[in-house]
TrEMBL record:
SUPFAM superfamilies documented for this protein: lambda repressor-like DNA-binding domains
Top-level taxon of the source organism: Bacteria
Xref: InterPro entries: Cro/C1-type_HTH, DUF5753, Lambda_DNA-bd_dom_sf
Pfam families: DUF5753, HTH_31
Record organism: Streptomyces cuspidosporus
Organism placement in taxonomy: Bacteria, Bacillati, Actinomycetota, Actinomycetes, Kitasatosporales
Protein name per UniProt: Transcriptional regulator WhiJ
Annotated ranges, domain HTH cro/C1-type: 18-72
Length: 284
């Protein structure tokens, strides 16, 4: 079977975690490859996500690396059964950039989500008109077909809240994002009303950092934190000038957990946040 030309973010992540195990015991790739009978090239392809790996082989490698973290090994073993083409987002492959698909995949498998947004309503909580306005401001302008695909994809991401066991999402939004009038008063008012409705879902928590807050830190750090089945498989997605970036180094995860905790401490309570959203909607 030829190597994958474009592995998904989760396929890459599986390989990265195996590489971390191997490097933790100081084992050369050629020695690990010999265990599987394929040599160093095979291990290199597995660790970059270009080759898949079976559960049996993954557990053999984990034992060879003397990994005692059984919860991590079990979580990685479950990932070996994931195949490209299974998720709804695959319908957009070739139409949307890969990071859009990787984000949908990340949210689909996340055990929980935490987000911080400064200037926009979180993408997964946007109305169709609001999302259309946001994507319409892309520079250079998007072709109509691409614009429609991005909006449709964003709307489908909501599926995680419609499941029998919906994903929990804790969203912290700065007051600035609530007052930005993307698309004008009508679209902004409808967006704020929709956000109020989402606050009623047991799985969604929205808290607002008001302009009056004196304890808010990390004002420019919009991010999405996705919890994995074990903490070592958590992932952070951040937007940069070059597009979306996914981070999984433990130092990065710890840093963003600290940032989220600090921002959360500066936010209003759920009740006060709902009241502020209602007040702003009335003012628009």
């Amino acid at each position: 079977m030829p190597p994958r030309s474009n592995p998904t973010a989760r396929q890459v992540r599986l390989g990265v975690e195996l590489r971390k195990m191997r490097e933790a015991v100081g084992m050369p790739a050629r020695e690990a490859g010999a265990l599987l009978g394929g040599g160093q090239p095979q291990i290199s392809h597995i660790e970059t996500g270009r080759y898949g790996i079976s559960e049996e082989r993954l557990r053999r490698l984990a034992a060879f690396y003397k990994c005692a973290d059984t919860a991590l090994v079990d979580a990685l073993a479950a990932m070996t059964y994931e195949q490209r083409g299974q998720g709804w987002w695959e319908n957009y492959r070739g139409t949307l950039p890969a990071p859009f698909l990787d984000l949908a995949e990340l949210e689909h498998y996340a055990t929980y989500l935490c987000s911080i947004d400064i200037t926009h309503i979180p993408g997964i909580l946007q109305t169709e008109d609001y999302a259309h306005t946001v994507f319409s401001q892309t520079i250079p302008p998007l072709p109509q077909a691409d614009l429609d695909a991005r909006v449709a994809h964003r709307m489908e991401r909501r599926k995680i809240f419609e499941r029998e066991a919906p994903t929990t999402h804790k969203a912290i939004i700065h007051e600035a994002a609530l007052r930005m009038r993307f698309g004008g008063r009508k679209i902004t008012r409808a967006q704020l009303k929709y956000l109020q409705e989402q606050c009623e879902r047991p799985s969604i928590t929205v808290r607002v950092v008001p302009f009056a807050s004196e304890g808010y830190v990390g004002a420019s750090r919009a991010m999405l934190y996705a919890g994995g089945p074990v903490p070592k498989l958590d992932t952070v997605q951040v937007e940069t000038a070059l597009g979306a970036t996914f981070l999984d180094a433990q130092s990065h995860l710890e840093s963003y957990r600290t940032v989220f905790t600090a921002v959360e401490a500066a936010a209003l309570s759920e009740t006060d946040s709902r009241d502020l959203i209602h007040t702003i909607a009335q003012e628009v």
